[in-house]
Write a structure and sequence with these properties.
The protein is α/β, with parallel strands linked by helices and about 400 residues long. It has a seven-stranded parallel beta sheet with strand order 3-2-1-4-5-6-7, sandwiched between helices. Helix 4 packs parallel to helix 5, helix 4 crosses helix 6 and helix 9 crosses helix 13.
Length: about 400
């Protein structure tokens, strides 16, 4: 590595959907000659190290936090927020020494702007969606209601300002505005995330997509080849506490339309419900390939899953659980490529009704048309912008 090599710290925290885009960026940066360190939750260090990207775990296991018997409380969230802020001012501050730029993504990376300023290097905040960014219209489908914004302050303001005071810095009142900056990057496709109403100088790169070349498992290939395209049902890193047996309800809803089912186990631990041959369960799998071979995708509405299904031209039923997921559900419906389920808890009637709508040939035609408009160059654009920000030159 020569003197002109860019040394970058990428940091994220959250579920798989918060990690994969930054990993995609890390891989592209490495291809362009950068020295990359990726900070992330301990749940996903194996995924990063398998691609030979140096990983620095911080904070607790995300799965242990969100996937317990009961949903995490506000006190639990406050405790993790304080832990993460402290880790950024200690572990990540040490790791950032000698770096040329810091990029922060994922769940509220409070503290990293201060670390970058203390080192005199650029700081970038990257969002995966417009949800939570301030709007010109005050439309809370895009932004957050005041109570939610104040909840963020309630979790992060005290630990952040305690650390700022030790650096001789004045307190921050609005943590979100401070972390986001006036010019955040937006790693989401313009078709899925229009920015017309955003009140910041957003730099939209397009989605950061992690290429997946893995073959599908032989058993899944055989299942797909054995009949008509099935319905895929999976909820990623959502624990899905209701209904009590989401797999059973989902399978019966698909069967009501004469459809077979592929269940993505995920953190909801979906498994086959009986010994009939019309249902197949898979763990971690190449969704980019699988979604091109299914009749519809039923999912939670995370940014990554929504983008993958949209690129594949698969009609979608989005059952939003939290955060940005209602926003993506609304976008899927507005684009005519699927249905936004009414609320996070589905029953046989509601899911069967939604599937009936998305299995209509017109929805399939619309999904195929939109697929051709989804950009695939977002990660390259972001990587080159980071080099420019750091005053370095990429290799290729």
């Amino acid at each position: 590595m020569g003197a002109m090599t860019m040394r970058v710290l990428l940091s994220t925290f959250g579920s798989r959907g918060d990690v994969q885009p930054v990993l995609a960026l890390a891989l592209r940066l490495r291809e362009l000659g950068a020295d990359v360190l990726l900070s992330l939750p301990p749940d996903f260090t194996d995924m990063v190290e398998a691609r030979e990207i140096p990983a620095l775990p911080i904070g607790p296991s995300v799965r242990s936090f969100v996937g317990g018997e009961k949903p995490p409380t506000l006190d639990d969230a406050r405790a993790i927020a304080a832990t993460l802020v402290e880790a950024r001012f200690t572990t990540l501050a040490a790791a950032a020494e000698g770096r040329d730029v810091i990029l922060a993504a994922g769940l509220m990376p409070a503290g990293l702007r201060e670390v970058a300023a203390n080192l005199g290097i650029p700081y970038v905040y990257a969002a995966y969606q417009v949800f939570g960014l301030p709007t010109r219209s005050g439309n809370n489908d895009y932004g957050l209601p005041p109570a939610a914004a104040e909840a963020v302050n309630g979790m992060y303001r005290e630990p952040l300002n305690t650390r700022r005071s030790k650096l001789g810095l004045p307190p921050v009142d609005d943590v979100r505005a401070h972390v986001f900056t006036d010019r955040p990057w937006l790693a989401c496709d313009p078709v899925l995330c229009p920015t017309d109403d955003i009140a910041l100088d957003v730099v939209q790169t397009g989605a950061w997509i992690l290429p997946d070349e893995r073959p599908l498992p032989p058993g899944l290939e055989a299942f797909l080849d054995a009949g008509e395209p099935p319905v895929y049902v999976g909820f990623g890193s959502m624990p899905m506490r209701a209904p009590a047996d989401p797999a059973h309800v989902a399978v019966e809803a698909a069967r009501a339309h004469g459809r077979r089912v592929v269940l993505g186990s995920g953190w909801a631990d979906l498994t086959v419900v009986d010994d009939r041959d019309d249902c197949f369960a898979v763990g971690e799998v190449n969704q980019q390939e699988l979604f091109t071979r299914v009749a519809a995708v039923v999912h939670h509405g995370g940014a990554g899953t929504t983008t993958t299904a949209a690129r594949a031209g698969a009609p979608q039923v989005v059952v939003p659980q939290m955060g940005d997921q209602p926003y993506f559900a609304s976008r899927v419906a507005a684009l005519g490529v699927g249905v936004a389920h009414d609320g996070p808890v589905f029953g046989l009637d509601s899911l069967s009704g939604a599937l009936g709508a998305v299995l209509d040939p017109e929805t399939g035609r619309r999904a195929a048309e939109v697929a051709g408009r989804i950009r695939s160059d977002g990660v390259d654009a972001a990587a080159r912008m980071l080099f420019e920000l750091a005053g370095k030159e990429p290799v290729g």
